[in-house]
Specification:
This protein has about 525 residues and is mostly beta strands. Among the domains are: about 90 residues, Cytochrome Bc1 Complex, Chain D, domain 2, CATH 1.10.760; about 150 residues, Methylamine Dehydrogenase, Chain H (7 Propeller), CATH 2.130.10.10. The chain has 8 helices and 35 strands. The strands form 9 sheets. It has a 5-stranded antiparallel beta sheet with strand order 1-8-7-6-5. A 4-stranded antiparallel beta sheet has the order 4-3-2-35. α4 crosses α5. The radius of gyration is 24 Å and the shape is globular. The structure holds heme D. Heme D binds next to β9 and β35.
Length: about 525
């Protein structure tokens, strides 16, 4: 009681410039929310309550959660204690920007570091009969759980509670034994797929975009919106190795849009959301130095000195003409295709020459991150759905681009904008969902030889049916019924007939171990 009174006084003094409503909302926040969600809304045992972290939660729903709580969690409702006006004040407060970029250093990270089981305690072999390379990690966003699925029998091996709001693809160690997952709240978690248990967790950021794992299995890197940073973790136990501030030479900072592993280059590539730059950061022990300029001594005429950025993970900056929102690599990781933030087109940069080599006819927000590659008429092409289209009329596009000439081969008309696309080397078809609009329940099956839609599949009419992933051999396609009362529906990838249905809670992405670690051309990386 004493403590909350003191905090209240502190808030009043600290917020002297704020309006009466803001002070009131802050005081309510300190009294009812801060213990779990952190004094500065940065998160604690509960998720961070910042506009960036609440993007997926409508204000109306937030009002309901604050009033009634969340079932099966520690979140209790305050509907009996607070008035509707007070609850609305809390909603408005948590959706208001923080106004500064919070600090999240090694000390804060290490405070969150959690050890469930140590690496040296693990068995050598899988503790089950299933093919460990044909497992799927299925993220169920409905109740924040993850299912590890046997990809031969389509039976769950393990279901566990995940961190709040996982986002982005599951990433595996190069041998497929360990899976790494990231939450929008910045938590990175490592699990052992042989013994089906959690190992380590750490909060690498306040608002995280995605993670990538190096090809030597030594590093995990997280791209953050908050704070403006990339964080390199030791893949072994997830302890922080290096924090790379996302700054330019003028001292300005940027959000990091995404980071990916580039296997042949032995480096990570990141796109900066607020700078016209892409960065390449090498983890190759033989990496050449990255020169950043001359020392001040040289300029004063005293002593010549070239300044290098410390390796590993020194940043090689590639200047680009427009900020990249989303990107994709050619199969050799020599070139990077980017979609501009304005949604007006695309560009290709050569990572060695550090130059633009082509422009792409890619209007309408292509979702490059979910692009796939396959051979068409003897040439590699890349296919990507577009997030923009005519939702009301049910019109969308999949663009198919020749990866040698960078010309558009075909724009396939779809029944609405799609989010995810998938194929497999062993299947003649590419599958794309229609995530938005009146046909959101349909998935188009496209013949890779003719680039024509040959069938529409509708696993559950009226619901969003989306995101496909193939089994290791490409014989089965797994589709999500994206609903609280949802399912994972398994199709024979040749006959296109349903073979099994498993009930799940809003399953979003699913990731096959083999397809991911071999960087299959039909799946995301
Ligand atoms: Fe995602 C992957 C960014 C909204 C579900 N999404 C990714 C990746 C990025 C990204 C950078 C690649 C991560 C990786 O695998 O390494 N997503 C964005 C956005 O900028 C966007 C449009 C806005 C935002 O809120 O961040 C966005 N994404 C969504 C959603 O609304 C989705 C549908 C539901 C959700 O869970 O938030 C969603 N994104 C996904 C999924 C993947 C993903 C399922 C993994 C795809 C894969 O197959 O690899």
């Amino acid at each position: 009681m004493m403590k909350s009174a003191l905090v209240f006084v502190f808030v009043l003094i600290a917020a002297s410039a704020a309006s009466a409503e803001e002070i009131h909302a802050k005081a309510l926040y300190y009294a009812h929310c801060a213990a779990c969600h952190g004094a500065n809304r940065l998160g604690g045992i509960g998720p961070a309550l910042l506009p960036q972290n609440l993007k997926k939660l409508r204000k109306k729903k937030a009002f309901q959660v604050i009033s009634e709580g969340r079932p099966a969690t520690q979140m209790e409702g305050v509907g009996d204690t607070l008035s509707k006006t007070q609850i609305q004040a809390l909603v408005d407060y948590v959706y208001s920007p923080l106004g500064y970029v919070p600090h999240w250093g090694k000390k804060e990270m290490m405070k969150s570091w959690t050890v469930h089981t140590e690496m040296h305690e693990l068995p050598e072999k899988p503790q089950f009969d299933a093919d460990p390379l044909n497992l799927f990690t299925v993220v169920e966003t409905g109740d924040h759980h993850v299912t590890i699925l046997d990809g031969d029998k389509f039976e769950p091996l393990w279901r566990f509670r995940s961190r709040f709001a996982l986002h982005g693809g599951a990433k595996y160690s190069p041998d497929g034994r360990f899976v790494y997952l990231a939450s929008r709240d910045g938590w990175v978690s490592k699990y052992d797929l042989y013994s089906l248990q959690p190992l380590y967790e750490i909060r690498a950021g306040i608002n995280t975009r995605n993670i990538a794992v190096s090809s030597d299995g030594k590093w995990v890197i997280a791209a953050n919106y908050l704070p403006h940073s990339l964080v390199v973790l030791n893949a072994h136990d997830l302890t922080p190795f290096k924090i790379i501030k996302a700054d330019n030479r003028k001292g300005e900072t940027s959000r990091v849009a995404a980071v990916y592993n580039a296997p042949p280059r032995r480096s990570f590539i990141a796109a900066l959301a607020d700078f016209k730059e892409i960065w390449e950061m090498s983890y190759d022990p033989e990496a050449a130095p990255v020169y950043v300029g001359f020392s001040h001594n040289f300029r004063k005429g005293q002593e010549e000195g070239i300044v290098e950025e410390e390796q590993p993970f020194a940043r090689r900056r590639i200047k680009i003409e427009e900020n990249m929102r989303d990107f994709y690599f050619d199969p050799y990781y020599a070139e990077v295709m980017g979609a501009s933030r304005g949604g007006k087109g695309g560009m290709v940069y050569n990572l060695d020459a550090r130059k633009k080599v082509a422009e792409l006819d890619l209007e309408g927000m292509p979702h490059l991150g979910s692009g796939i590659v396959f051979d068409y008429e003897g040439r590699p092409v890349m296919a990507t759905p577009h997030l923009k289209g005519d939702m009301k009329k049910g019109k969308g596009t999949v663009s198919v681009i020749d990866m040698e000439t960078w010309k558009t081969v075909k724009k396939i008309e779809t029944k609405g904008p799609g989010f995810f696309m998938r194929s497999h080397e062993q299947t003649p078809y590419a599958w794309v969902d229609v995530f938005f609009g009146p046909h959101k329940d349909i998935l188009h099956v496209i013949d890779k030889k003719t680039l024509k839609i040959v069938k529409d599949i509708n696993p559950e009419p009226g619901k969003v049916n989306a995101h496909v992933e193939f089994t290791r051999d490409g014989k089965y396609a797994l589709v999500s019924v994206w609903d609280m009362d949802g399912a994972l529906v398994i199709y024979d990838a040749t006959t296109l007939e349903e073979v099994k249905r498993l009930p799940m809670k809003k399953p979003s992405g699913k990731y096959n171990v083999h397809n991911k670690i071999t960087y299959s051309k039909g799946t995301s990386h």
